[in-house]
Structure to design on (806 residues):
């Protein structure tokens, strides 16, 4: 036995692989990413008797025929060519006991790799309940490898896997007998000689097989090196030779593997004579029903969004209070000056800006994980497919876009499930147009202050409420033509058929759900958090320097001294605060940020904005929620105002252009809202887009198209609105 | 037996897949998930997309212009899916 036993776990989606991984590894697992790809790397460490074991959970897949670098990762791990994992000692292939034939397709590919292999027939209890009888011992004899039956969610059969893996490892490497006809094997040997001649000896037999089988696959375009062109031509000829010998590539693979599956299972599986209507079938009669299904769907979505909006604010309030307390502690310890300002207005405000999204993200992921794990998400995608095909996407884009209504970051990450690259790209690029929770404060501030209080139907329907509702869905409306245009131009191509498994319904596992929530929250805080923090400090510096803060700091110290008195003189305090706020406003105007605002005034004037709004918009490019606090600072009310602050609302109403016209009119307010609805003011989202598309190009593209769209839309709204009003 | 496109199946009808036409990449993907020549499917809910029963799994499927799935209707009671 080696020092550390490395065991890879592989299986089809919906076979209970994650449940089994958790049952095997317990708490000792960590999640990361394989370098350079978006594939999740889940490693669990356990102790099996004397030996340390490292479990590597590979992503659920229907096959090991890599079409992209992402799909190549699993093959590399199994072949021992993934540098950060090393050589696996054994592989555990998990199959759904109720669907052996389909699952055996992937299993036969795993056998081809030649590692010591264990077959785990999971969901054994479900198959038994269905009346299915499988002769596991007979299968073990026929396959010549350990076979374990298991019901991972009930934790039965899990401990047997350990012994089976140890037996498989002790038996040593398996001789690989090819599933394919002799003519194919001969062709594969000639290919090995050819590659050896080009300086690539010892090519793994499984890769040779894949090179021949995968027409247009990832291997043929990446494994040729300097002989890429020759390899391509050689493969074409080899495939022609195979076709002439009656071994047509790639159809031969499905035919051979399914024939083997059928042959292997022959006589060992007894299906029940009559088909029982399962619980899932009965539920699905309603949940996928054309009318009832859609009504239930909208009801579920309503519950999710209402809960999101009732559960998050108290926690967000708590986080904000914590932030306020921390700031006051800093103020107590450090006198007014650049250090206090950096700590409070830069770092603490920056960290707070990250953490304030955490409740939303946690609850959203909680609901998504629950719906996903119980099996409903596939039904939601099924129901929404009809709608999504109208813009050229498929039902699989629905979940990512829905998530983006709370926050685009989990939305963009959820697009991983879309295997069609064009669909995935379009979904990622339009996800930030969905109205996330950070836009809400801007909408609230603008509608509360500038939209007239008109009510109908005895006050139930108000113009303010309608405006809020309309703004929430405005981005999604705009996304429709954007998606359509993207599909017609940059991502043109044939629509592939839509095929998706509808897994059986089951009780969600608390452990899997909580784990997913934790992982998402953790990765959000560490990855996106560090960037927002850096940007906040930059914006703080731009608003602080250059400028002489001595007078302002002196006033601040005076105010704090007065506040310490048992009975602070209210009128004196008010005068000082007013003076102090004016001074801060003036300092901001002469700072780098203020100068930038003046510099861009000509560009934002056609939108009806003055330099102050310009500054607010510039400051909110890293994170749009900064706008309200920045407006507070610019309008000399201090940075700690929120969107429902009456002073801020009044100040906005009374602010004037130099010639005395009011700055904020209804068209200006709408122009600001429209701008915020469409603009890519979120550095974290852009960073996640960069990571998920593996290219800065698409992040820049998103920024440019959204900002351009926002500018043009705000311009149209103001120009038309101000003429009409 | 008549060969008909998959979309023509009525709810509850069972059929054997006779042929899948389309570009190789897509046909391979369909085979991996279980939709292959010779597989027996039952139409659970017709429509676009439809729901198919294939062994003990349920698949939602929407054929597109580039892929055609042809099936051979199996008389009721001949095969249980």
């Amino acid at each position: 036995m080696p020092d550390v036993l490395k065991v890879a776990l592989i299986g089809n989606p919906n076979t209970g692989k994650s449940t089994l991984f958790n049952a095997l590894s317990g708490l000792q697992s960590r999640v990361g990413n394989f370098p350079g790809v978006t594939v999740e790397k889940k490693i669990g460490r356990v102790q099996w008797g004397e030996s340390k074991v490292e479990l590597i959970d590979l992503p659920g897949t229907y096959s090991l025929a890599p079409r992209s670098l992402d799909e190549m990762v699993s093959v590399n791990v199994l072949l021992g060519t993934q540098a950060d994992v090393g050589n696996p000692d054994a592989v555990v292939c998990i199959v759904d006991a109720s669907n052996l034939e389909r699952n055996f397709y992937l299993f036969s590919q795993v056998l081809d790799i030649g590692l010591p292999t264990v077959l785990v027939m999971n969901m054994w209890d479900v198959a038994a309940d269905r009346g299915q009888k499988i002769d596991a011992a007979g299968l073990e004899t026929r396959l010549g490898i350990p076979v374990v039956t298991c019901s991972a969610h009930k934790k039965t059969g899990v401990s047997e896997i350990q012994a089976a893996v140890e037996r498989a490892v002790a038996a040593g490497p398996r001789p690989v007998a090819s599933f394919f006809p002799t003519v194919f094997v001969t062709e594969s040997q000639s290919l090995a000689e050819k590659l050896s001649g080009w300086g690539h000896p010892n090519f793994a037999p499984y890769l040779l097989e894949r090179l021949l089988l995968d027409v247009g696959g990832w291997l043929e375009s990446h494994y040729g090196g300097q002989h890429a062109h020759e390899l391509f031509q050689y493969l074409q000829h080899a495939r022609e030779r195979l076709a002439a010998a009656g071994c047509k590539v790639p159809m031969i693979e499905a035919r051979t593997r399914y024939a083997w599956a059928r042959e292997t299972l022959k006589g060992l599986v007894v299906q029940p004579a009559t088909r029982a209507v399962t619980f899932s079938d009965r539920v699905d009669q309603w949940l996928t029903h054309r009318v009832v299904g859609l009504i239930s769907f909208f009801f579920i979505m309503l519950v999710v969004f209402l809960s999101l909006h009732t559960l998050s604010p108290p926690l967000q309030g708590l986080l904000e209070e914590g932030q306020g307390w921390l700031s006051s502690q800093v103020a107590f310890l450090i006198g007014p000056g650049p250090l206090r300002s950096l700590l409070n207005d830069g770092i603490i405000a920056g960290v707070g800006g990250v953490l304030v999204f955490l409740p939303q993200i946690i609850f959203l992921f909680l609901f998504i994980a629950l719906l996903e794990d119980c099996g409903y998400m596939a039904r939601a995608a099924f129901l929404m497919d009809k709608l999504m095909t109208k813009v050229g996407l498929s039902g699989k884009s629905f979940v990512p876009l829905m998530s983006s209504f709370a926050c685009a970051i989990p939305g963009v990450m959820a697009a991983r499930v879309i295997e069609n690259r064009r669909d995935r790209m379009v979904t990622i690029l339009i996800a930030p147009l969905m109205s996330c929770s950070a836009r809400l404060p801007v909408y609230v501030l603008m509608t509360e202050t500038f939209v007239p209080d008109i009510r109908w139907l005895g006050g139930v329907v108000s113009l303010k409420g309608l405006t809020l509702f309309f703004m929430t869905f405005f981005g999604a409306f705009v996304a429709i033509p954007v998606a359509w245009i993207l599909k017609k131009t940059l991502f043109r191509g044939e629509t592939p058929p839509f095929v998706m498994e509808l897994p059986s319904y089951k009780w969600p596992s608390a452990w899997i759900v909580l784990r997913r929530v934790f992982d998402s929250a953790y990765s959000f805080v560490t990855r996106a958090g560090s960037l927002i923090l850096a940007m906040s400090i930059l914006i703080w510096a731009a608003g602080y320097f250059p400028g002489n803060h001595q007078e302002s700091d002196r006033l601040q110290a005076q105010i704090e001294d007065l506040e310490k008195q048992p009975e602070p003189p209210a009128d004196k305090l008010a005068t000082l605060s007013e003076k102090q706020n004016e001074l801060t406003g003036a300092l901001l105007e002469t700072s780098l940020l203020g100068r930038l605002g003046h510099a861009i005034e000509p560009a934002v004037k056609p939108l009806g904005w003055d330099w102050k709004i310009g500054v607010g918009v510039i400051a909110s490019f890293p994170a749009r929620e900064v706008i309200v606090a920045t407006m507070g600072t610019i309008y000399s009310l201090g940075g700690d105002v929120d969107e429902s602050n009456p002073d801020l609302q009044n100040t906005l109403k009374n602010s004037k252009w130099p010639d005395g016209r009011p700055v904020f009119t209804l068209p200006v307010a709408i122009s600001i809202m429209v701008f915020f609805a469409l603009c890519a003011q979120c550095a974290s989202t852009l960073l996640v887009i960069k990571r998920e598309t593996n290219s800065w190009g698409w992040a820049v593209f998103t920024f440019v198209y959204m900002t351009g769209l926002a500018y043009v839309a705000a311009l149209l709204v103001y120009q038309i609105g101000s003429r009409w009003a | 037996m008549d060969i008909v496109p998959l979309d023509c199946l009525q709810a509850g009808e069972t059929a054997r897949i006779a042929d899948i036409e389309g570009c190789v990449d897509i046909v391979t993907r369909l085979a991996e998930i279980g939709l292959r020549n010779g597989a027996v499917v039952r139409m659970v809910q017709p429509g676009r997309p439809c729901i198919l029963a294939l062994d003990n799994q349920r698949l939602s499927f929407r054929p597109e212009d580039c892929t055609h799935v042809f099936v051979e209707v199996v008389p009721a009671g001949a095969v249980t899916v």
Notes: The interface with chain A takes residues 22-38, 44-45, 47-49, 51, 54-67, 80-81 of chain B (CB under 8 Å). The CA atoms of residues 20 and 69 of chain B lie 5 Å apart.
